[in-house]
Structure formats: structure tokens, C-alpha cells
Amino acid sequence: MLLLSIETSCDETAAAVVRDGRTILSNVVATQIRDHAEYGGVVPEIASRKHLEMIPVVIAEALRGADVSIDGIEGVAVTQGPGLAGALLVGISLAKAIAFARGIPIVGVNHIEGHLSAIFLERPVEFPFVALAVSGGHTHLYRVDGIGRYTTLGQTLDDAAGEAFDKVAKLLGLPYPGGVEVDRLAAAGDPERIPFPRPLLHDGSYNFSFSGLKTAVLTHLKKHPDYSSEQNLRDICASFQRAVCDVLVAKTFQAAEAAGVERVVMAGGVACNSALRRAMTAAAARRGMELSIPAPPLCSDNAAMIAVPGDYYLTRGIRGDLSLDALVSWPL
Ligand code: KG4
Ligand code: ZN
């Protein structure tokens, strides 16, 4: 099946053309980062306006890149939630218009399910696996027994890991979004210089908590106002990043061991983090487990990942209709 998929849940306007939920013919992402940067975070109103402006351009580009006309598209998959209501509605409205005008089926896809499925665009992974979805809005551990078959093992009790990266970056005066900047500075920093806490590391659950870690960085900055020195800044970034990675890695593999599962998948924007990728790879190797992490462009928000569950559902006759509406909060 040749699918057009659309993703507008946050600050990326994205469209892709994907064959059989596996082969990417095009995957176009127009980021709004520069539009939100001066506000230090995503402004929902600006996000909706930018999506409205960019979505026709991005879809045209996706069709052109795939060398197909709209007549060749056999179905539409669109992110239905979770995300910003106004942002989601732009993608959903256009997806419904295309489905109605072309007389093709439409299906609403959960954004997190998209992240968890992105790996299938690169290679097959056998079920079951334990998946860590780690992004700006989510830090969740799931047992995955198949597409559509998810059991939540744990989740953040407060901030998502990406949110913690972005907030700490803001405290350090780094530009938005901070995750990439912290990653870059941490590369030349000492990750053992500052013993930041490892929240909930030994609590026996698979839950996370990152807001205390952010406060620990703030407390450190108040006590040591000399962080503007480049090396101190790098050491803070590296030490903070190490604390986040230690907790994410430990809990993911504890969960996999407890579930008796041999395979681990990591996905979401924070899965682009170079130290986290290295730490996960080393931990999997130590345990002889199979680890799969998509390439960075498939970890951060994109539309191709939405086509994977989209194709699965549509080929099984599971579809939405023109009453399809945005779901701001939608647990998997
Ligand atoms: O999945 P994503 O693109 O959007 C959401 O669904 O949230 O994730 C965005 C998050 C942001 O918080 C961003 O700072 C973080 O992923 N991020 C990173 C890196 N690249 C993106 N965090 C740490 N290191 C990175 N290299
Ligand atoms: Zn995302």
C-alpha cells in the first residue's frame, strides 16, 4: 500500500510517502525551531500558524520526492495525538480533506506508537521487545508484543528526559532546543566532575523523575556562579547528561531482564543523544542483548514513522472517518 503520512503534533511540519509501511520513498520535515527559539520553547499559537503555512508545501515536496502524484496515494495516516491541539488539527484537517477528496481510507496514529515503530523502516525486530520512548514530551518504558500491543512498564512521574535537557540548557543560557547543545558541550566535558543525583535509580520501579535533577543543576549553579567558564559549562553538561543516561540505561535493561525479553529498542528525540546511544550500546553488549536504535533523523519527529502503524492498521481494515479528532492526551 502506498501511504501518505502527516505529522504536526508539535513543532515539526512533516509528510512522507511510504510503501507497505517499510520503504521510505520520501520523508520531509520542516522544522519551526527558529520560529520558537526567541521564546525559549514551543509557542502553541505560532506552531499552529506555521503548520498551516507549511503543510501544503511539505506535502507537495513529499509527493515530488517520491515521484508519485496524489492519484497514486492509496491511504492517509495522520498523527492524531498526543500533542498540541491546534497543531494536531492542522494535520488532521488536511488528512481528512485528502481522504475525502480522493476517496481513500484514513487512519489516526498515536505519535508515541510512531516513535516505537520507526525502527521497522530500517530493519525488522522480532517481538517481544522492551522499548524506551524518550523525547521532549515522553519518557516511557513499554513491553511491545506486536504493533498495537503495548504494556506500560514505567514512565516519568514529572518531566520528560528531553524536557530536562531543554530546561537545564535554558538555565545554562544555551539556545533552544537545548538537548543538542548539551550533547555537543558534554562531548568535551568531565562526566564525573559533579555528582548529580540519579533519581529513583534504586526504587525498584521502572519509573523516572527528572525535575529534581534539574533543581540539582540549579542549586549547583547558585553555589558555583563561575559556570560561565567554558570548561565548567562543559563539565556541568557532561555530568548532567551522565546522570540522565545512567538512570535511563539502568531502568531499561532492568525492565528487559525482569520481563525476560532479549531485545531492546530506543526511540524519540533524546535517542539522538550521542552519550545515551553509546551507553545503551555498551549495556546491551554486556548483557548479550540485541539493541536497536534508529538513525537520528528517524528518532526525532518525522512522518515516515507514522506510516508504519498506519499501514498495519489500514491493511487490516482498521480506519478512521471524517469525525477523527485531535487527542491531546492519548496513552498508548
Ligand atoms: O521526539 P522529539 O523530536 O519530539 C517530541 O516528540 O518531543 O524530541 C525532541 C526532544 C527535545 O527535548 C530535544 O531537546 C531532545 O529531543 N533532543 C536531544 C538531542 N536531540 C534532540 N536531547 C539530548 N541530546 C540530543 N542530541
Ligand atoms: Zn516525538
From TrEMBL:
It is found in: Cytoplasm. GO terms for cellular component: cytoplasm. One of its GO terms (biological process) is tRNA threonylcarbamoyladenosine modification. Binds 1 Fe(2+) ion per subunit. Keywords: Acyltransferase, Cytoplasm, Iron, Metal-binding, Transferase, tRNA processing. It catalyses: L-threonylcarbamoyladenylate + adenosine(37) in tRNA = N(6)-L-threonylcarbamoyladenosine(37) in tRNA + AMP + H(+). It is an enzyme of class 2 (transferase). The keyword Cell membrane does not apply. Its cofactor is Fe(2+). Substrate binds at residues 133-137, 166, 179, 183, 273. InterPro entries: ATPase_NBD (IPR043129), Gcp-like_dom (IPR000905), KAE1/TsaD (IPR017861), TsaD (IPR022450). HAMAP family: TsaD. Belongs to the KAE1 / TsaD family. Required for the formation of a threonylcarbamoyl group on adenosine at position 37 (t(6)A37) in tRNAs that read codons beginning with adenine. Is involved in the transfer of the threonylcarbamoyl moiety of threonylcarbamoyl-AMP (TC-AMP) to the N6 group of A37, together with TsaE and TsaB. TsaD likely plays a direct catalytic role in this reaction. This is tRNA N6-adenosine threonylcarbamoyltransferase. It comes from Geobacter pickeringii. The gene is tsaD.
